[in-house]
Amino acid sequence: MSAPDQEYRLPNGGPSIAALPKVSLHDHLDGGLRPSTIIELAEEAGVTLPVTDAQGLEEWFVSQANSGSLVEYLKTFDVTIAVMQTAPALRRVAHEFVLDLAADGVIHGEVRWAPEQHLQQGLTLDETVEAVQGGIDDAIADLAERGHEITVGQLVTAMRHADRSLEIAELALRHRENGVIGFDIAGAELGFPASNHKPAFDLLAREFFPVTVHAGEADGLDSIKSALFDGRTLRLGHGVRLAEDVAVIDRDGDHTTVGLGPIAAWVRDREIALELSPSSNLQTGAIAQWGTELYDHPFDLLYQLGFQVTVNTDNRLMSATSLSRELALLAQAFDYDLSDLETFQLNAAAASFLPLEDREDLADRIIAGFEKA
């Protein structure tokens, strides 16, 4: 397990954030490859890359992702997916992905990815899931030998613009005893509501299988409403545009009174977690109506209002980020202290798709780790 490239700390100093126990809920497998691995896999697969040195390739991904558009942002995945079309490649990527989580202090991670995008060289859906699980298992075993305990679950994702969601839901259910702990839909959000995938969500509900849905990133309240009603989602992937349902009622000096619309009230009162990804939200223009800097992000508004906010990376490669970096950026923008960072991790632990006993154990590990800091 290698150390992070940079030691992130709170603005007033304190412990290394990477050393603190953390939970990662929203992290895409195909958005977290090491640039050096992409180069090696591309050479093996005969894939032409836009840049052929690791540093330059990393910079290319960030530059391309800084588009202000989710649709343009998603085009960068054409490169990573192209080198993830064989079982050995999937296993290696998953292995390294978990090692990198652990290097960032993560003790529980939920890795989302879309099996339907990895069939170009003849793999079956089941073979892709098995290959990724093999890599996860390898990494967990490697880390255990080094004294780092981590749990990792797969979130099997269906592409919302395609028509395979029922098939992918059935795939997830087949592997619920082999590492798959939840289901997701992802991809271009605008014009592709969760309601398009109602048969898949109905099946998952009948089988009591957890669901998270990308919503409130490139589309607004109607998309979030569909995720809640049609998807029966337990978490909102991003969900940042839920802030559109928060209205300022009165300002009196330093005191501001706000009111929650029905969707926002439902999400807050039912403690439906928001999988917020600050850097990614800036890159895709998800917060454009509030501004273009991190301090414009409605993260703090939602936190102060009592929403179940969690902090995530979304795609570590495209944002050149880590969970420690995201926490450091938020602390700098909103003057958060160690207790705030602990709250975000406890929120994530409570929202994870682990069984109750495991969630409680995760919370205990987080509290113990922060107490030692």
UniProtKB/TrEMBL annotation:
<keyword id="KW-0862">Zinc</keyword>
<dbReference type="InterPro" id="IPR006330">
    <property type="entry name" value="Ado/ade_deaminase"/>
</dbReference>
<dbReference type="Pfam" id="PF00962">
    <property type="entry name" value="A_deaminase"/>
</dbReference>
<dbReference type="InterPro" id="IPR001365">
    <property type="entry name" value="A_deaminase_dom"/>
</dbReference>
<protein>
    <recommendedName>
        <fullName>adenosine deaminase</fullName>
        <ecNumber>3.5.4.4</ecNumber>
    </recommendedName>
</protein>
<feature type="domain" description="Adenosine deaminase">
    <location>
        <begin position="21"/>
        <end position="367"/>
    </location>
</feature>
<keyword id="KW-0479">Metal-binding</keyword>
<dbReference type="InterPro" id="IPR032466">
    <property type="entry name" value="Metal_Hydrolase"/>
</dbReference>
<keyword id="KW-0378">Hydrolase</keyword>
<comment type="similarity">
    <text>Belongs to the metallo-dependent hydrolases superfamily. Adenosine and AMP deaminases family.</text>
</comment>
